[in-house]
Design a protein that fits this description.
Blueprint (H helix, E strand, L loop, with lengths): L9 E4 L5 E3 L6 H13 L1 E7 L5 H12 L3 E5 L2 E7 L11 E2 L4 H11 L5 E5 L10 H10 L2 E5 L3 E7 L8 E4 L4 H11 L5 E6 L6 H8 L4 E6 L2 E7 L8 E3 L4 H13 L4 E8 L6 H9 L2 E10 L2 E9 L8 E2 L11 H9 L2 E7 L11 H11 L3 E5 L2 E7 L9 E2 L5 H11 L6 E3 L12 H8 L2 E4 L3
This protein binds shikimate-3-phosphate and phosphoenolpyruvate.
The site of shikimate-3-phosphate (S3P) has 11 residues, from α3 and α5.
């Protein structure tokens, strides 16, 4: 919801060994898609392991506003869908809270139905660019009326007579790709999306699982995804794997905190999501994948992370950026505890997330005594070595869950306490972060410095 409550300051202090098992929640990307595709299927989709973070709960509420029934019974979420093209016009504003994924995918899903809907979010989401989605939706015949700069609040008037579209996505964004595919569901004929760099492919996988005809080809132009419109989607039983982007926090905390040995079981390791773990291994992290297996069409393993005092800074290749885009903030916390310089390039997209993540991390890291250089689409962190980060600062989380969690992780290995001015946004993606981390032995607590 857009009304963000009073700030919740949180502190993090140098901790003894982190040990035990960290059961992180379900994948955020897959959770949003389960609810949206469930709402577009004919009949009842059942979802277990759904992330019950505020971002996903806002998407559940939105699906109800478009006419789907969404309710939790026991451990299972039941979504009674209205069929492709069956969305009702909401009689109130759709509030997507803090969630770029929620608003952009839902705009896509309604854009080829002849209804209107008005979207808003919190101060962070209302500052983020939406033209990247409304430009391709206009090709289907949808119209967008938003604030200047293509910002929310925004009304989308869906196309009542949509045309299929061929669209090359100009930025590496799974949200834009997914919005176009979801719009293509209710357009006749074939909608084609081309992406130069492969981004997370959960939409393609799940659309196929629901019975849509989806073809993916790797060509010289990039990945070409062809969707045949107006299918009848068949309801599914979905088991959501655990989120690698959330697993990143206990994993990175264990790597930098002396004596730690932490198991993070059942993590989804779709190659379009797993770039952080490759990067950490290249830095010399003691990180292993145990019991690799397949579950629900996604590769899964148990991650084991142990304190790794000898990590070295590296150059992270730009072509890996999409597969770890949400993990750069916490990677920069690890880089601060490594030896030498970690250079991260091809990461312009970090500037348009819940906050400008390069700026937010750079300012906070500098306040903690860490040297950071930055340019428009790159940044570099010079590590202080294990146990070498001075800390002792209060940093701003800027309505950004990943900034808040990254500094709380860094505080576990810093010489003096790190305070985050508002840890409230953590509830958007990882509502059990605080109890999970404290159960491992992390000295994270509510309250100011
Ligand atoms: O499609 C998705 O589920 C997501 C795509 C990414 O955003 P972009 O599409 O803006 O890269 C990512 O940052 C976000 O957390 C989730
Ligand atoms: C960028 C993120 O989310 P979204 O774009 O959905 O707000 C994120 O979770 O790091």
């Amino acid at each position: 919801m857009s009304s963000h409550g009073a700030p919740i300051p949180m502190t993090s202090d140098r901790s003894g060994p982190l040990t035990g098992t960290a059961d992180v929640p379900g994948d955020k990307s897959i959770s949003h898609r389960s609810l949206i595709l469930g709402a577009l299927a004919v009949g009842e989709t059942k979802v277990t392991g759904l992330l019950e973070g505020q971002d996903v709960l806002d998407t559940a509420a939105a699906m109800r506003s478009f006419g789907a029934e969404v309710e939790k019974r026991g451990d299972t979420w039941h979504v009674h869908g209205v069929g492709v093209g069956g969305f009702e016009e909401p009689d109130h504003v759709i509030d997507c809270g803090n969630s770029g994924t929620g608003v952009r995918l839902i705009m896509g899903a309604m854009a080829t139905t002849g209804i209107a809907a008005t979207f808003t979010g919190d101060a962070s989401l209302n500052g983020r660019p939406m033209a990247r989605v409304t430009d391709p939706l206009a090709l289907f015949g949808a119209q967008a009326f938003g604030r200047s700069g293509g910002r929310l609040p925004m009304t989308i008037l869906g196309a009542s007579d949509p045309l299929p579209v061929r669209y090359a996505v100009p930025v590496p964004s799974a949200q834009v790709k997914s919005a176009v595919l979801l719009a293509g569901l209710n357009a006749p004929g074939e909608t084609v999306v081309i992406e130069r760099e492969a981004t997370r492919d959960h939409s393609e996988r799940m659309l196929a699982g629901f019975g849509a005809e989806v073809r993916v080809e790797d060509t010289d132009e990039g990945r070409v995804i062809t969707l045949t419109g107006q299918p009848e989607l068949r309801p599914q039983e979905i088991v959501v794997p655990r989120d690698p982007s959330s697993a990143a926090f206990p994993v990175c905390a264990a790597l930098i905190t002396e004596g730690s040995d932490v198991l993070v079981p059942n993590i989804g390791l779709n190659p379009t999501r797993a770039g952080l773990f490759t990067t950490l291994q290249e830095m010399g992290a003691d990180l292993t994948f145990e019991n690799p297996r397949e579950e629900g069409g996604e590769p899964v393993a148990d991650l084991r992370a142990r304190f790794s005092p000898g990590m070295k800074g590296i150059e992270v290749p730009p072509e890996r950026a999409a597969s770890m885009i949400d993990e750069y903030p916490v990677l920069s916390a690890v880089a601060a505890c490594a030896e030498g310089r970690t250079l991260m390039t091809g990461v312009r997209e970090l500037r348009v997330k819940e906050s400008d993540r390069i700026d937010a991390m750079a300012k906070g890291l500098r306040a903690c005594g860490v040297e950071v250089e930055e340019g428009e689409d790159w940044w570099a962190v010079t590590g202080r070595g294990a146990g070498g980060v001075p800390g002792g600062a209060t940093v701003e989380s800027r309505l950004d869950h990943r900034i808040a969690m990254s500094f709380l992780v860094l505080g576990l290995a810093a010489q003096a306490r790190i305070t985050v001015d508002d840890a409230g946004p953590i509830a958007t993606s990882f509502p059990v972060f605080e109890p999970l981390m404290t159960a491992l032995g992390a000295r994270i607590a509510r309250g100011g410095a």
